[in-house]
């Protein structure tokens, strides 16, 4: 199955998975670098050679192949032109909505290999097929962000695959607007903050070294944020509003036993927990930027992709809400965007050569032009960002 195959492909396979040639290379220019047909052939034959070796000797080969990794840009001996290999991007929650639309948009360019990091393998496989993604452009790997063990296992299998990591997109999320009682992750954290923030926090911390090692011209770590976490907007003022308070609930472990399930220590509210988790996402991106941008050159970014009112995010909302929300956003707030359009926006943040600025929260105006948006006071509070970082490190076992 693609899961196993993908998880074990050695690094020289970072070009098309089955060593097939790719239409994808034909027209390609990215970051001003052109791709050449003869390089395509080189990649394919070395990929096939590697695959044969790999089949014969399994594990031992992995270490060796990483040592002969294909550089991101190589110079052709014949005419001195620069060539760029396919980018390798991990997208969490790529089995539906924004994640799937982004995976599709990137795969279609032929310049990216998408690692779809999903909790439901079959759902992801069906989704990729029905989106028309071709097999050589994606690999599905299992991750359940509501389990730190699963996050660690994912990182382990990804590293053993020998693939380079050029961009990581933390996109998956859960939203429980109608829950009366909190539910919890495997380690006992309230589910929305546990999945949307803590799972991604551990994942991105563990993958940071891999990103650092990437020789791709622009390496990026993107964490999806939202307008509803920002109280400097109308949408962010619809109750219940995001508010992390003094972080006493987070400090206590969000477990609802010896502490409260909410970050601010208040009563459980599923909609608020989601909005709080988005504030954590946006603060985490900025803290990454402050700690690592200069040293690593990695671009850290967040975004509000628009209101994608039709996605699975609202699956737990009441049917009346799901019926009225899309027309409300389309005709009244005019904040609605289709999954396809939102996917193109996030794909821009992944690969557009003009969006390399780090520490930015991107949004789009009516004409779908990107701009650097202003975060709310809480979502740009440096002191809170630092505290959340430190508390989260303890909760996920990094400190
Ligand atoms: C909660 O309800 C739910 O209880 C919770 O379970 C969860 O779903 C949560 O955020 C998610 O919402 C929120 C509830 C209360 O809103 C509603 O859903 C009720 C809708 C009431 C309808 C009002 C009429 C609008 C006409 C709509 C036409 C029909 C389409 C409906 C589609 C449904 C989509 C919602 O919300 C309220 O209390 C109502 C009003 C809140 C408005 C808040 C605006 C505050 C503005 C303050 C100014 C801020 C200044 C900022 C300045 C920034 C400027 C850039
Ligand atoms: P979807 O529900 O369509 O997508 C969420 C994805 O996250 C799904 O693939 C889901 O998997 C996955 N997921 C949920 N829990 C886990 C888990 N424990 N482990 C692994 N994967 C998990 O919603 P959207 O596409 O709307 O949401 C994507 C992102 O966009 C979120 O970060 C959300 O906050 C953000 N966003 C959405 C907006 C909107 O209007 N929809 C607006 C602003 C931001 P599965 O398919 O198996 O359920
Ligand atoms: Mg909101 C003015 C514009 C605007 C925008 C862009 C959004 C986006 N919303 C806006 C306004 C309003 N919403 C108003 C005036 C209301 C009261 C009628 C309203 C209500 C509302 C509800 C009940 N909106 C919602 C909900 C949800 O359950 C969604 C939510 O908060 O999920 C956390 C939601 C959203 N509105 C948005 C966006 C993008 C969402 C969803 C998701 C998210 O932030 O990820």
UniProtKB/TrEMBL annotation:
It catalyses: chlorophyllide a + NADP(+) = protochlorophyllide a + NADPH + H(+). One of its GO terms (molecular function) is protochlorophyllide reductase activity. Keywords: Chlorophyll biosynthesis, Chloroplast, NADP, Oxidoreductase, Photosynthesis, Plastid, Transit peptide. This is NADPH-protochlorophyllide oxidoreductase. Its EC number is 1.3.1.33. It is an enzyme of class 1 (oxidoreductase). CDD domains: LPOR_like_SDR_c_like (cd09810). GO terms for cellular component: chloroplast. PANTHER family: PROTOCHLOROPHYLLIDE REDUCTASE A, CHLOROPLASTIC, PROTOCHLOROPHYLLIDE REDUCTASE C, CHLOROPLASTIC. Its main location: plastid. It is found in: Plastid, Chloroplast. One of its GO terms (biological process) is chlorophyll biosynthetic process. Belongs to the short-chain dehydrogenases/reductases (SDR) family. POR subfamily. Phototransformation of protochlorophyllide (Pchlide) to chlorophyllide (Chlide).
């Amino acid at each position: 199955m693609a899961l196993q195959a993908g998880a074990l492909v050695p690094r020289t396979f970072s070009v098309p998975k089955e060593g097939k040639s790719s239409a994808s290379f034909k027209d390609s220019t990215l970051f001003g670098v052109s791709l050449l047909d003869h390089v395509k052939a080189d990649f394919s034959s070395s990929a096939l050679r590697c695959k044969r070796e790999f089949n014969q000797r399994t594990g031992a080969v992995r270490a060796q192949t990483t040592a002969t990794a294909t550089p991101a840009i190589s110079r052709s001996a014949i005419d001195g032109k620069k060539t760029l290999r396919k980018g390798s991007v991990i997208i969490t929650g790529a089995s539906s909505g924004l994640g799937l639309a982004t995976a599709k948009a990137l795969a279609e360019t032929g310049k990216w290999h998408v690692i779809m990091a999903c909790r439901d393998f079959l759902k992801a496989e069906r989704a990729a097929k029905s989106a028309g993604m071709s097999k050589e452009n994606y690999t599905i790997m299992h991750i359940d962000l509501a389990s730190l063990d699963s996050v660690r296992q994912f990182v382990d299998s990804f590293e053993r695959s020998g693939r380079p990591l050029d961009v990581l997109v933390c996109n998956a999320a859960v939203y429980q607007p109608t829950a009366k009682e909190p539910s919890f992750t495997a380690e006992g954290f309230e589910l929305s903050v546990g999945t949307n923030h803590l799972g991604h926090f551990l994942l991105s911390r563990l993958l940071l070294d891999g990103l650092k090692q990437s020789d791709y011209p622009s390496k990026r770590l993107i964490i999806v944020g939202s307008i509803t976490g920002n109280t400097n907007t109308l949408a962010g003022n619809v109750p219940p509003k995001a508010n992390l308070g003094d972080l006493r609930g987070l400090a206590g472990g969000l477990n609802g036993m010896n502490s409260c399930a909410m970050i601010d220590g208040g009563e459980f509210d599923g909609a608020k927990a989601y909005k709080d988790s988005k504030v954590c996402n946006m603060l985490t991106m900025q803290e990454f930027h402050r700690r690592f941008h200069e040293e690593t050159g990695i671009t850290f970014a967040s975004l509000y992709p628009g209101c994608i009112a039709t996605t699975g995010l609202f699956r737990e909302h009441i049917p009346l809400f799901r019926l009225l929300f899309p027309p409300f956003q389309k005709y009244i707030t005019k904040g609605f965007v289709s999954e396809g359009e939102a996917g193109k926006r996030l794909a821009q943040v992944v690969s557009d050569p003009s969006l390399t600025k780090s520490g930015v929260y991107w949004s789009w105006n009516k004409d779908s032009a990107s701009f650097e948006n202003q975060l709310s006071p809480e979502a740009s509070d440096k002191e809170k960002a630092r505290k959340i970082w430190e508390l989260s490190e303890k909760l996920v076992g990094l400190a």
